[in-house]
Amino acid sequence: MPVLNFIGDMDVRPRYHANDASKDVLNLDPQDVEVHDCRGSDEPSLDTCGFRLYEHHSKVADFLDPENVAAVYPAEMSEFLKQVTGADAAIISAPGLLRFGERSDSYDSRDNSRPARFVHIDISDTTAAQFAERSAPVPMDRIERWAHYNVWRVVTPPPQDVPLTVCDARTVGQDDLIAADAIFDVTDGPEWSFEGLVIRHNPQQRWCYYRDMNPDEVLVFRTNDSRPSHRPAVPHSAFDNPIDTTDVAPRVSIEARGICYWYR
C-alpha cells in the first residue's frame, strides 16, 4: 500500500515552507494507506465527497511557458469552475502553479514547485474567509455563499510516477485537522504566510485517486466552503505510484486555485 505522511504529535505549532523544506517544523507520521482507484467506479460528487474528475481540453499551447499560461489559463479556469459549480463568479488567484516530480530536472527550479509530500488542506477556515473577502467581485453582503477549489491537471502523459490522492471529505473529522503556518519564502519578494491545515491519520478516512490521468482531464477538489455543512474540506497529498515507473517521464502538473461566489 502507498505510504502517506500525516502529522504526528507535536509540542509546537507545525510550520512548512514553499521552497526550503529544511526549515519545516513537522513531526511526520508515515502510514500505509489503501488508496482507491476511482476510475471506472461510481463517480464521486463534487458537492458531497468534495472532489470529481472532469474532462477539459485547454487551449494552452505550452504549459511550461508562463506567458502562454497567464494569457489563457485563468480565464479558462474561471469559466470552467462557474460551469461545474453553478457559481455566479469565479476568481482565479494566480495563472497556474507548476509542480515537478522529484525525478524531474525542473524540480525545485521555481518558487513552490515541489509536490507536497505530506497530507494537508491548503487553507484553514480563517484564511479562506480572509481570501474570499479580499477577492470578492461584489460587496460581501451581496454574496450568499463562497467556496475555494483547486483544479489539478497533469501535463505529462500517463502513467504518473507521483500521482495525487484526495480524501473523501465526508470521512474527515474535525479532530483530524491541525492548524499550521504555511510560509512562502519566495526568491523575488518578502516572506509571507497564512494558516493552512495538516492532517492526523484516521482509519475512517477514505483515500482516492485517478489512475493514468491525461492532460485533457482535471481533478477538482474543494479546499473550503462558507457552508458549515461542507466542512472539513478535502485533504490531499502526493504519493509514489506503486507500479514500476523507472522508465516513466517525471510527473509535471499545474494547479489553478479559484474562489467561487454565489450571489443573493
Put the structure in a nutshell.
This protein has 264 residues and is mainly β. It has helices at 66-85, 125-135, and strands at residues 3-7, 15-17, 28-32, 35-37, 51-55, 89-92, 97-100, 120-121, 143-154, 164-167, 177-184, 192-199, 207-209, 217-225, 236-238, 252-263.
Count of alpha and pi helical runs: 2
Q: Domains counted in the coordinates: how many?
A: 1
N-to-C SSE series?
EEEEEHEEEHEEEEEEEE
Low-confidence parts lasting 5 or more residues at pLDDT below 50?
Answer: none
Mean pLDDT: 94
CATH third-level topology = Jelly Rolls
Helix content: 10-25%
Global outline: globular
Strand content: 25-35%
Fold topology:
Blueprint: E1 3-7, E2 15-17, E3 28-32, E4 35-37, E5 51-55, H1 66-85, E6 89-92, E7 97-100, E8 120-121, H2 125-135, E9 143-154, E10 164-167, E11 177-184, E12 192-199, E13 207-209, E14 217-225, E15 236-238, E16 252-263
Parallel strand pairs: 2-11, 4-13
Antiparallel strand pairs: 1-3, 5-14, 6-16, 7-16, 8-12, 9-14, 9-16, 10-13, 10-15, 11-12
Features:
four-stranded mixed sheet, 264 residues, Jelly Rolls
Structural commentary:
The model has no long low-confidence stretch (mean pLDDT 94). The longest helix is centred in the N-terminal third of the chain and has 20 residues, at 66-85. The termini are far apart. The strands form four sheets. Strands 5, 6, 7, 9, 14 and 16 form a six-stranded antiparallel β-sheet that branches. Strands 2-11-12-8 form a four-stranded mixed β-sheet, with no helix packed on it. A four-stranded mixed β-sheet has the order 4-13-10-15, with no helix packed on it. 12% of the residues lie in helices and 34% in strands. The chain has a single domain (3-263), classed as Sandwich (Jelly Rolls), CATH 2.60.120. With 264 residues, it is mainly β. A hairpin with a 7-residue loop joins β11 and β12.
